[in-house]
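Note to self: the last two entries modelled the partners one at a time, which told us nothing about the interface. This time every component goes in together.
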Amino acid sequence: MNQPESRQACGPTASEQDQRSRERLLRAAVDVFDRKGYAAASVREIVERAGITKPVLYYHFGSKEGILVAILEEAARQFQKAVTRAAQRPGSARERLAALCEEIYSLFKQNVPVVRVAHAVYFGPREGLPPFDFNVFDRTLADALHRIVEEGMATGELRRAPIDDVSTLINGVIEVCTDQELNPHVTPIGLDGLHRVLNLIFEGLVATHEGKEN
Amino acid sequence: MNQPESRQACGPTASEQDQRSRERLLRAAVDVFDRKGYAAASVREIVERAGITKPVLYYHFGSKEGILVAILEEAARQFQKAVTRAAQRPGSARERLAALCEEIYSLFKQNVPVVRVAHAVYFGPREGLPPFDFNVFDRTLADALHRIVEEGMATGELRRAPIDDVSTLINGVIEVCTDQELNPHVTPIGLDGLHRVLNLIFEGLVATHEGKEN
DNA sequence: GTCTATACAATGATAGAC
DNA sequence: GTCTATCATTGTATAGAC
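The predicted structure of the combined assembly is written out below.
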């Protein structure tokens, strides 16, 4: 995999060819898993779409499950990177929460097929699960949310309330907006809509706030 | 199916036996679809679990897909019934929205396996879909939400805002709470949590409301 | 590292008796 | 309406040559 490359430029190396096949397989697998579902996807269709043959897939990933795990691991890396990046931004709690939601929404919007595959596996059957820790997504997001909300309450910017409830609520906003991107029959609310909904929960839905102290 | 029953009570009728097999098959199918996923579920396992044989399944439902559609249709009926019942309740917009959320949450909580199956198919692969209108769920809920929110704004109880944004928000609260029931790794927020989160969005997250007029 | 050819298990569905 | 027995197809995975 990592052998030194002391050679002239005269066509693809063996390991370059290697990487190219790997990437083609990953792209093809995401596409087929997305359209057919993991269980109904056939190795035959994946390799045909990648323009190579079956043994190449088994050489690189060992099994059909192996290529799914590789996809999920890459998705988890991207997700953690995005959340970490957003969580480190400066500003008020409200700004930082909005930035976090925006970051995740954009990431999902740019990778809809992968997100659909991950979503399907996450909520999918409990028997026959691939060896992958699905809760990295939850934990990563929950930690970031918890930290920001806690600070927002400490500075008095946010109302006192159970932190986990607030996290759940923000989680719901992200979820409902991203889920709209996954469903082909629904017209997504978009980034603007996401911000409008966030404003709603910060300002509150009721018109008169006579009893808001606590 | 509906032949008259002019006979003494001396053991199960043919049509009674019929219904019994049908129900056993439906229960077994929900269980196996839930655990293995629709595509990975085998007819063999379903009929074994139901304690009957393959031809009985094909006699009643025609195909593996047919039994899935039957499950979804029954789920849609239950859902519409629950939403209609909740939407007709009296009270303030806030009370009615809470009642609607509670009704749906309770229905889902009492039928987790079926909901998981429906959820998986709803977000599942677009190719190989069963002949079923998945948007009955969306439309039923969206209509009910729209009506209540509209009335709440007309009476001045709720702040003026895009109705669809408010609907999306309530939708997100329902979604995030019910999704927690579907994921075995997460401890659900429960009915109390649902109400706390709803209170949060009605009252708003920010501590000081200096610019809350529109 | 990639190919051709194939092993072998499991699947959805049906024919025909009762 | 329910059974036994069976079919044709498709699936994942691999052996062995290059």
